[in-house]
Amino acid sequence: DAKTTQPPSMDCAEGRAANLPCNHSTISGNEYVYWYRQIHSQGPQYIIHGLKNNETNEMASLIITEDRKSSTLILPHATLRDTAVYYCIVRVFYNQGGKLIFGQGTELSVKP
Amino acid sequence: NAGVTQTPKFRVLKTGQSMTLLCAQDMNHEYMYWYRQDPGMGLRLIHYSVGEGTTAKGEVPDGYNVSRLKKQNFLLGLESAAPSQTSVYFCASRPHQQGAFSEAFFGQGTRLTVV
Question: Quick check: A53 contacting B, CB < 8 Å?
Answer without folding.
Answer: no
